[in-house]
Amino acid sequence: MAAIHDSTELYRNPPTKIGQGGKYDPTRDADGYEWSPKHAAAIVDFFPTYLMLTSGKTAGQKFQLQPWQADYLATLNGWRDASGRRRYRESTFFTPRKNGKTETGAGIALYMLALDGEQKAEVYSAAKDREQASRVFEPAAAMVEKSPSLRSRFRITPSRKTIDYHATHSYYKATSADSGGKHGLSPHCVLFDELHTQPNRSLYEAFKSGLGFRAHPLFVSMSTAGTDRLSICYEVWQIARKVRDGVFRDPEFLPLVYEFPDGADWKDEDVWRDCNPNLGVVTSLEFLRAEFRRAMESPLHENTFRNLYLNEWTEQAVRWIPMEDWRACDVELPNLDGEPCWCGLDMSSTRDVTAFVMAFPLCDGRVALLPHFWIPEDTAAMAERSDRVPYRLWAKNGLVTLTPGRQVDHDKVRADINAFGNRYNIIEIAADRWNAVQILTQLTGDGFSVVQHGQGYASMSGPSKEFEKLVIGHKLIHGGNPILEDHAENVSVERDAAENIKPTKSNSTGRIDGIVAAIMACGRALTSNAGATASYYDTHSVEIS
């Protein structure tokens, strides 16, 4: 194998400051443990000696650790008990996105597989699903392929996501929560990637329970901040902070946490530098500035910026629509009679608001919205108290229809939609079939083209993002409809790990049905072949004030 670097002299003494602001001093709880410069240097030197970076502008270069990374790895491996066993059994590696977590984790996995002296070692990278689990395996495999010294000693099996090291009969495997039970495993090392995406604690606990079979195992949780404060990730995060801050003592737990400081100004570039230890190495300041500009334009992107790039735990549901932009779209609607439109129908439940929104694409890129709503007459007064809006006044103004009884009358909704169809050129109606199978079947029989539109991330993310662009760009025309504005004030968005979004309520009582229907309508209008149907606005000049 290649001649290894020698950082033994560099780590003659242990680092005393680890992580953001040097908050954690590893010597603080070191009673009964000794510092081993040889072991500290071994893992630090392994990276530039045998490994190459695999992505971005540094791909193909030697893996030169930044000082903060080198000190962390040296601390992780350098402290030993009297028998020579590693002090730290558990660690966290919590940084914002684009600070080298994944490739550092891949390097740790390879070191633990081959150079930790463990016979028949089992090394795992664990994640929510197979795709996420591959994000540590793929750079690890690429590092092996790029290193002649490693390539001749390891065997990679891509189909099984495994790397074998025959000298010690050891293997590394990428695994996930969706690939079967994990009880009965005997891990020597676990790299748990993006812990915040775990739907529950079962996979985490399964791997933790297997550590007892090894003399000096290592469990490393890697993640950015999430949104669910009831998750296993938030629990581990809080433990890491308390150990770091000396709130309680756990000499076998090594916390590395780079996060948004409490009470800091998220707009301050010095705060960005404090949160991102690899700023200027992996992530550029120009990139963060561009993301910041997007964040200043949208509450959703502010939440994303603070969560992903400042490592701040944020709320899952984020107030979405900037109301100043929404009100800027309060433009008088032109005469839309006979014009082509795509519609969204949100039936909700039988006792709640039913919303029908027609979206008319205009030739200048704007979209006009024409909504209508229905609620049960017998529950209108109660709904006014709970929703704090004047439904009966709106009904007098023709904005909402009160249907007889305590439930929305689907026959009335159907009749009104048919009346709209006689007045406007309805190309398509999009709706979720939940609570609406019968009326959708009837509308299909009436001659309308009806398409099913799910309410999950897969179906709603794209249309929601397009809807947001229309609002922020003032390309939406809604005529100041007060019900639609109320729903715009109530709507939030949830975001998943892949940054998909979907609308949700920002409080327990506020209605958002009109916005949901508008998103479906605009989504279908913008993605369908609107040009196939000639519009009045293609051939006439109309002044819209």
Query: Biggest β-sheet, characterized?
Result: 8 strands, mixed
Briefly note the CATH topology name of the largest domain: Rossmann fold
Total count of domains? 3
Global morphology? elongated
Mean pLDDT: 89
- Which parts are unreliable, with pLDDT below 50 for 5 consecutive residues or more? 530-545
Strand order of the largest sheet: 5-6-7-4-8-9-3-10
Helical amount? 25-40%
CATH class of the largest domain: Alpha Beta
What structural category characterises the helix and strand content?
alpha/beta
Tell me the total number of β-strands.
Answer: 20
Overview of this protein structure:
This protein is α/β, with parallel strands linked by helices and 545 residues long. The chain has 3 domains: 20-75 and 85-254, P-loop containing nucleotide triphosphate hydrolases (Rossmann fold, 3-Layer(aba) Sandwich); 269-315, no CATH class; 323-539, Nucleotidyltransferase, domain 5 (2-Layer Sandwich). Helices cover 37% and strands 18% of the residues. It has helices at residues 37-50, 67-78, 101-114, 130-146, 148-151, 202-209, 232-244, 269-275, 285-297, 299-309, 323-328, 380-387, 391-396, 410-423, 437-445, 457-472, 482-490, 513-527, 536-539, and strands at 34-35, 79-80, 90-94, 122-127, 154-157, 162-165, 170-176, 189-193, 218-223, 253-254, 317-319, 340-346, 354-361, 367-376, 400-403, 425-431, 450-452, 476-477, 491-495, 501-505. Strands 5-6-7-4-8-9-3-10 form an 8-stranded mixed β-sheet, with helices on both faces. Strands 12, 13, 14, 15, 16, 17 and 18 form a 7-stranded mixed β-sheet that branches. A 3-stranded antiparallel β-sheet has the order 11-19-20. The termini are far apart.
